[in-house]
Amino acid sequence: MGEGEVPGMDEEMMEDPMMDNPSEEVLEPELPSDVAAAMEEELNEQIGSALQSIVDTFTREDDPIRQFMSLVWVRNDYYWRGIFNIYWSEIASAWREFPSDYELFPGQDDQNVNIYRGYGQSIIAALSASLPNIKFFPSDADSPDDLETAKAYTIASEAVQKHNSAEILLVRILFYMYKQGTVFVYSYPEGKEEYGIVETPVYSTKTMYQHDLTCPACGNVLETYDDENPETDPIETPGPCPNPTCPSVTGMQNPDGTFTPPSPIIPVVDTKEYSAPFIKEYQQNVKKRVCIEVYGCLNVRVNPYVKSQKDIQYLILSDEKHYSYLREQYPDHEAKISGNAGGDIYRSYRLGPDLNYYTSEALCTRERAWLRPSAYRIFTEDKEEYELLKQTFPNGCKATFINKEFIEAEAADLDQCWTISDSPVDNFVYSDAIGADLVPIQEMRADLDRLKIETIRYGIPENFADPAVLDFKVYAKRENKVGQVVPAIPRQGQSLKDAFHETRSATLSQEVPALTSQLDTDAQFVTGAYPSIYGGQQEGGSNTLGEYRDSAARSLQRLGLYWRIVNNLWAKVIHKATAEYLDNLLEDEKIVKAQGTGFVNVWVKRTALFGKVGTVEPEASEQFPVSWQQKNGILMTLLNMKNQSIDAALFHPENTSLIARILGLSELYIPGDEDRNKTLINIMELAKAAPLPGMPTIDPVTGAQIPGPEMPSIQIEPAVDNIPVAIETIKAFLNSMVGIELKRTLPLGYRNVVAYLTQYTTLQQQQMMQEQMAAAAAGGDNGQSGDVGPVS
Hints:
Layout: H1 33-80, E1 86-89, E2 94-97, H2 115-127, E3 134-138, H3 144-163, H4 166-179, E4 184-191, E5 197-214, E6 221-227, H5 247-250, E7 252-253, E8 259-260, E9 268-286, E10 288-295, E11 300-302, E12 314-322, H6 323-329, H7 345-355, E13 363-371, H8 383-392, E14 397-402, E15 405-411, H9 414-417, E16 418-420, H10 439-457, E17 463-465, H11 472-477, E18 500-502, H12 511-527, H13 531-534, H14 545-583, E19 589-595, E20 598-604, E21 613-618, H15 628-640, H16 644-650, H17 656-663, H18 673-686, E22 692-698, E23 705-711, H19 723-734, H20 737-745, H21 747-782
Helix pairs in contact: 1-7, 1-8, 2-4, 3-14, 10-12, 18-19, 19-21, 20-21
């Protein structure tokens, strides 16, 4: 062992050895704690002031276009909630509702048909029927390490999606795409004790001494031992050298002709100093998961004139929180955090129609700003601030402000934290909402609905009567009866009907129903949401299956554009989140998956992360995400085809549970399903054990003993087992990712499962031979045997 060399230890795992040898430390003068704290506080104030200047400059420059775009986003929010009687107030710079007694909208706003929300929900439901599929590619297809890492990323991505309720995330992405267009996805690691705690050793080094006892006659090392003592006890008792050729054992012929006889020796001690690692302590590390949050344009602002994410210089995430929550999040800055009933106009935009008048003093506005290093170039004259930020945060930073007060700053990479949707049919990063073209149709539809209601409401004519002919006081006291006779005296020279007058009632124009139908058709065209995607009735057609398929194809052409945007965004988000998750992986993680009526663990191994992942691509399908109702229809169509090949695939043991779920009959008993579940349970037990040695046989030629085939630790039960189902289930398991991983990590368990399969296949072959022999015997008994002689 060389001096200072520690085999198997990474240098990064060792602390400075000087830490455990105070006598060897180079002591530097330390500043008083109050002076150091004052200097640090002054530096933080300088950084905070510089970052505040950058943020204020960007927001001031972009405010005019930001306010214009917010006008559209907030209006869409009102329409989503079914509020249409609104106007833009130049004084308040916000949308305002007309008073309920306003003559144009006399309390009828809640009586409109909200097609804007209806079409939005249909589109969201159609595109969120299933999650987008993504595929991780290895950096090198010929590298086993890269292939293993790509598989590990695939498994880890499933864990990340499970941790973040991926189905809900997808709905929120589509929700913001429909109302606001651009979607911003924030991903970050978060550690919690509920995720688990891992103890990791903390290594340090200490000085050790290697003592080599050597023979003074031949130099042979007699003994080596290590300890922390630089001195050794002197060896006073001589002893023989174990080397048979040593001069102290054989004697030695001297140059002068004399002979030195053999004699005992006293070993010579050679001491060497080296640094040895040791476990100083065990550190408890909280496991981390990657959290994914989805935001819209009202919460996130970026440079509005850029075309893609790589061009933006800043990103500001704004939200409102109670002051107690923020004090818990930033305990070192509690004195700066207090509620504020005011705030800028964007605060009312974010609170939306329901809370835009909410002026509670308990709310605080928190702004978190991510800045690229290029944003520091705002300081063209003050080079000192630029150098300060460039030196402190060379790769970018994240600054936090609460009610415009600087709280803290830390190094951060904007692209690592954020993923922005990219629309290929828009010129800039802020894209048009999916429902943008539906807004004018909704406004016209609201006017028509209001016109219909008012026409019906005021369609009952008003009657006038001559009080000289009809005594209203007497008439009011009479009880109304069917066919009653009311005495009345007309004026002289006039008939009774001349004393009464009925106003002319308004009549609904005949164009209104046609216009309403045309607006519905236009709404379908501009959104691409035809009745085929939400189960509505196809108007103006034959309602045949072919017509609905054509309608679905048209919907696919239009909504397929947005589905590609979602697929691309989803692949980027999950790629970032998965990489972040694996970077913070402290130990092997398992994912529990359902298999039959049982469960199986799928592991993410840290040893599988030595390779490299190339690209991640969305597996964009040419079809819409298929809902369970559509799967049910496809299944019934395939069953009605009565094709043997299709039936064999459908009724494969691995598909029985899926068929029950598609049919919506979870309690349905499917023959073979219980046999499959039993086989899976046995496989899990077999994987934990080694196979048993088989019965040996004797070679008739050599007489040598030949080991017999291995036997599984669990024996088959021919009387109760469904042999074909068991064979297919075991083969499917061995060829799955779990089976391949079992072969690599637990080869004995894999061999045990193979031995279990071998028993089934051997039994099946025996049964087939017996059936063939029985069939041949039956054929011989029914036929004629022997030669047939000539007929006379």
